[in-house]
Write a structure and sequence with these properties.
The structure holds two protein chains of two kinds. Chain A has eight helices and 21 strands. By secondary structure, chain A is α+β, with helices and mostly antiparallel strands. In chain A, β17 and β18 form a beta hairpin. The N and C termini of chain A lie far apart (about 55 Å). Chain B is about 70% helix and about 0% strand. Chain B is built from 13 helices and two strands; from the N terminus they run αββαααααααααααα. In chain B, a hairpin with a 7-residue loop joins β1 and β2. In chain B, α3 runs parallel beside α7 and α12 packs antiparallel against α13. Chain B is globular. Classes of the chains: A alpha+beta, B mainly alpha. Chains A and B meet through β6 and α2 of A and α9 and α10 of B.
């Protein structure tokens, strides 16, 4: 079990810089998830760690070994691919044993490891089948089994659940989390699905255009996003962003939000006059009457069973997403008023960086 | 019935040119040649029914028949693997993502178009002549090359080299097959510590097996039917010393030099049966070594 260090890592394809001077410390034994929109470089980064992609600059170390020039096979890691990448002409057993045979392990050792993996993943009854005879979930298990048998220092997962249907994805997510708890090996997991990231990670790295936007626990990312991009990317449904005029004086800031009116809050740590207030769908009080209240019309209702999301159109035409109790009775076209929970807002300056208010005080 | 015919009339109308060609130019002559193979006929007068006499003579008495089989089988056994190996090698090189690959593909395919032409066969004869280009190059290294084509010990190999040079068509098919193998499999194998050789034998070859099988069948049939280049290089009679007496040349001479049409027809049917047997055996054994991704279980 080893950690991983990336120092000043760059990757360029000709003039295009995909990864830009990236530093990252992966703590030994953690489940780190790389998340970001398509094209942010997360899969490239994973492939660079795996040794499938050369790095343009910087160093990658696994444990205390610099592995820049080591081929993938000598980095002592395993990778689970998005497409599973099972050898289609080999049985499940041979798929699992292939890597171990290449490492010239004894037959007894190969058998022990393959049997153990098949027991962990409950694929004992599939061992003589070819990949084409397996369902998506079974293929995924075999792909994970192939990674397990190597007993590597590091597991890499490249969007391993994206080819599965929604139900199976949830099931495999739970199984992967269980596997992590059982093995305790360092895992690096790439996904564009933030639900996967939030539910599985011990820490999340949010990437955008080859740069790290924020590293933190799921709780930190959700509750203290360091910039507008992270605030918008983490959280489903998406956070509501409200353009705000702000005037800061001694000890207090006056903010004015279209449709909601104005309020005095504790002084924001920035002299920006145009700031963005972000409010998560659950941080609105329905039919509230405090400051920063607005009226709107329900234009769409999303009923998810345990929760209810209302798409509200304000008089300015701005649309917001509001979370309501699932048992609340609302109809499309209903008018309703909402109040911002001022204690749970996030503030960002013109550059999109988080501003910390000192202490919220409500003012008329 | 009438309704069925009326409904399908346009279909049959479109099929007619092909059906005419098939019946008049393929099936008809084939059946006639089958009949002729049981007769003695010099293209003048009526064929005389001789039963299996032509086949009996062929298998039991005709030494040139066995010589032509020997030459043809030797050629098939050498030329087909050589051409396929060469084609696969070039396909693997081209699959590595070379710039302007289209130009290279066209260039490499060119010999396959030209190779079958009479002009190239004549050129080949000049290249391998005693005073040809090959010997002119060898003399620079102090080697006096033999008369490659005039020497019965080497003449067949010059044709094998010509066959190798015509690798374009199987190469294109291999290239298409290689493009179908997902890159992730090689990456998984890379992580699984498989050497390049192991990747070739454990991934490339098994996954290319359907394409390889197709190429083997196609190229073997083509090799059994080799005619024009061998005809030109051997002056049309299989010389020197019958070392280039391909089955097709022997058959051609029996038919159009000696006008033994009955015997030539028997030879033609024997070649057809040999090719048919080879194909049947190949298909039968393919289930042990050809893997199909979408095979039914």
């Amino acid at each position: 079990m080893s950690g991983l260090s990336l120092n000043g890592v760059c990757k360029s394809y000709g003039p295009v810089n995909v990864i830009k001077n990236l530093d990252l410390e992966v703590i030994s034994g953690e489940f780190l998830v790389l998340v970001g929109p398509s094209g942010c470089g997360k899969s490239t980064l994973l492939r660079m760690i795996a040794g499938l992609e050369e790095i343009t600059d910087g160093t990658i170390s696994i444990g205390d070994r610099i592995v820049n020039d080591l081929p993938a096979s000598q980095r002592n890691l395993s990778m689970v691919f998005q497409s599973y990448a099972l050898y289609p002409h080999m049985s499940v057993r041979k798929n699992l044993a292939f890597g171990l045979t290449n490492l010239k392990m004894s037959k007894d050792e190969i058998k022990r490891r393959v049997d153990e993996a098949s027991e962990i993943l409950q694929i004992g009854n599939l061992m003589d089948r070819k990949p084409r005879q397996l369902s998506g979930g079974q293929k995924q298990r075999v792909a994970i089994g192939r990674a397990i048998v190597r007993e590597p220092e590091l597991f890499l997962f490249d969007e391993p659940l994206s080819n599965l249907d929604a139900e199976l994805r949830v099931q495999m997510r739970v199984e992967l989390a269980g596997l992590y708890n059982r093995l305790g090996t360092t895992m690096i997991y790439v996904t564009h699905d933030q639900v996967e990231a939030m539910t599985m990670a011990t820490r999340i790295v949010v990437l955008r255009e080859g740069k790290v936007e924020q590293v933190g626990t799921p709780y930190e990312l959700y509750n203290r996003p360091q910039n507008l991009f992270v605030a918008g990317f983490i959280g489903s449904p998406k956070i509501n962003m409200l353009e705000t005029k702000c005037q800061s004086g001694n000890g207090a800031s006056q903010i004015e939000i279209e449709d909601f009116g104005s309020a005095e809050i504790a002084r924001l740590g920035s002299d920006s006059t145009a700031i963005t207030v972000c409010v998560r769908p659950e941080n609105f009080e329905i039919n509230g009457s405090g400051v920063l209240s607005a009226k709107g019309k329900i234009v769409l209702i999303e009923y998810l069973g345990s929760e209810l999301y209302l798409h509200l159109e304000l008089s300015s035409g701005k649309r917001l997403m509001i979370k309501a109790p699932s048992k609340a009775e609302h109809l499309v076209g209903d008018e309703m008023s909402i109040t911002i929970d001022i204690d749970n807002c996030h503030y960002f300056d013109e550059a999109g960086l988080r501003i910390e208010p000192a202490k919220m005080t409500e003012a008329a | 019935m009438r309704k069925f015919f009326v409904r399908n009339l346009p279909g049959y109308a479109f099929l007619t040119p092909w059906l005419l060609g098939f019946f008049l130019l393929a099936l008809g002559p084939m059946l006639i040649s089958l009949y002729l193979s049981f007769t003695k006929w010099d293209m003048v007068g009526d064929p005389q029914w001789v039963g299996l006499a032509q086949y009996e003579y062929m298998f039991l008495k005709d030494k040139r028949f066995w010589q032509s089989l020997d030459v043809t089988f030797t050629y098939v056994i050498l030329a087909v693997p050589a051409r396929l190996a060469f084609a696969l090698m070039i396909a693997i090189v081209l699959d590595k993502g070379i710039r302007k690959i289209g130009i290279y593909r066209a260039l490499y395919y060119l010999p396959s178009i030209l190779g079958a032409s009479i002009a190239i066969a004549i050129l080949w004869r000049e290249i391998f002549n005693i005073d040809g280009v090959v010997n002119a190059v060898l003399i620079n290294f102090g080697i006096q090359g033999p008369n490659w084509i005039g020497n019965p010990d080497t003449s067949l190999y010059t044709l094998v080299v010509l066959a190798m040079w015509q690798f374009g068509s199987p190469m294109l098919i291999f290239l298409a097959g290689l493009r179908n193998i997902p890159t992730e499999l090689y990456e998984a194998a890379e992580i699984d510590a498989a050497s390049k050789a192991k990747q070739f034998f454990s991934i490339t070859l098994p996954l290319l097996a359907p394409v390889l099988f197709f190429n083997i069948i196609l190229q073997t049939i083509e090799a059994f039917k080799t005619f024009s280049s061998a005809f030109i290089i051997s002056n049309g009679d299989g010389s020197p010393a019958d070392s280039l007496l391909f089955f097709t040349i022997y058959l051609f001479n029996e038919a159009f030099t000696y006008f033994r049409m009955g015997y030539a027809s028997a030879l033609a049917w024997t070649l057809l049966i040999i090719i048919g047997l080879f194909t049947a055996v190949s298909f039968y054994t393919s289930k042990y070594w050809v893997y199909y991704e979408n095979e039914r279980d």
